[in-house]
Amino acid sequence: MQFLTLGLGSLEQGLIYAIMAIGVFVSLRILDIPDLTVDGSFITGAAVSVMVTGLQGEGGGVLYPILSMLAALLAGAAAGAITGILQTKLRVQPLLAGILTMTGLYSINLLIMDEKPTVNINGMTSIFSDIQNWFVALFGDSMGVSVAKKLAVIPVLLLIVLIVAFVINWFLHTQIGMSIRATGDNVEMVNASSINSDAMKILGLAIANGIVALSGAALAQDQNFADAKAGTGMVVVGIASIIIGETIFGKRSVLNNLISAILGAIVYRIFITVVFQLGLPASYFKLLSAVIVVIAISVPIISEAVIKRRARRAKNAKG
C-alpha cells in the first residue's frame, strides 16, 4: 500500500508540474527565452487561487475554485506581459527582466495573500473535492481514504494537462502562433516580414506565465494552501522536465515536444521520489534538481562526442 501511495503521489505531482513544464516550454523552446519570471508567477497562481477560493467560505460550492483557476491564469499572464514589456519596450536583457519581475512578484504575492506567508483553505471546497468524496465513497473501505483521495485527483489533473496541451498545440499552429514561433526562430526575419516581434514576445511570455500560474493554482488546490516562499527553483524544475523529456522521448514536432515535456515532468517526479526513498534528505531537493538538469544537458553532448570518436576510430582503422 505504501508503494501505491508513493506511486500515486509521484504521478500527482508529476501532472501538476507537467502543466508548468508546458508553460516553460513556450518561453524556453518557442521564444528561446530562459524566463526567470516562473519562480514568481507560479506562486502568483497559487496565491490568487487560495484567495479567490477563500471567498466561498466553508462548505461552499465548486464555482469559486474554478473561478480561482481562471483568475490565476490571468494573473500569471499579466506577470508574463510585464516581463515582455521590460524586454521589448525598455530593452532590458531577458534574464534581468525575468529577475526584476520575479523579485517584484514576491511582494505582490504577499500583498495578494493579505501579508501572510502561508494561507490555507482547509475545510473549503476545492476543484478536487467532489470527485474525492465520490472516490472515498467507492474505494475508501478497500484502499483507505488517503489513497482514494490521491487516486481521485489524478483524472482531474490529467484532464487539465490534456486541455492545456491541446489548446497550446492548436494555438501554435494558428497564424499568431506561427508568428510567435517565427519570432523565437529568427527575429530579424520576422521584423522584415512586417510582423510585430515585440507584441509576439509579450504575448508569448504572457501565455507561458499564465500556464505556469495555472500549475501553481493546481498545486494550491491539491495541497489546500499557498506558501509565498515555495516558488524558488521552479524554473529549474520546468527546464529539467523539458530536457529529460527531450532526452528520452525526442523532439520532432510541437506536439511531440509537448508530450515529451509532460512525460519528462512525470519521470522527473518519479526519479525524485525514488531518490528520497533511498535516504537522501529533503533539503537536497534543489541541489538534486540542478544536478539532474546538468546531467540531462550533458547526455546528448557526451553521446555526440562518443559517436564522433567512434567514427574517427573506424575511419583510422580502415585507413
What layout of secondary structure does this protein have?
Layout: H1 2-30, H2 38-53, H3 63-88, H4 94-112, E1 118-120, H5 129-143, H6 145-171, H7 175-185, H8 187-192, H9 197-223, E2 225-227, H10 234-249, H11 254-277, H12 285-318
Q: Note the main sheet.
A: 2 strands, antiparallel
CATH architectural type: Orthogonal Bundle
Q: Spans of 5+ residues with little confidence (pLDDT < 50)? A: none
Query: How much of the residues is beta strand, in percent?
Result: under 5%
Structure classification: mainly alpha
- Which fold name corresponds to the CATH topology? ABC transporter involved in vitamin B12 uptake, BtuC
Domain count: the total is 1
Provide a short characterization of the protein structure.
With 319 residues, the protein is mainly α. The protein has helices at 2-30, 38-53, 63-88, 94-112, 129-143, 145-171, 175-185, 187-192, 197-223, 234-249, 254-277, 285-318; strands at residues 118-120, 225-227.
Describe the 3D structure.
The chain has 319 residues and is mainly alpha-helical. It has a single domain (2-284), classed as Orthogonal Bundle (ABC transporter involved in vitamin B12 uptake, BtuC). Helix content is 78%, strand content 2%. The chain is built from 12 helices and 2 strands, in the order ααααβαααααβααα. A two-stranded antiparallel sheet has the order 1-2. Helix 1 packs parallel to helix 6 (145-171) and helix 1 packs antiparallel against helix 9.
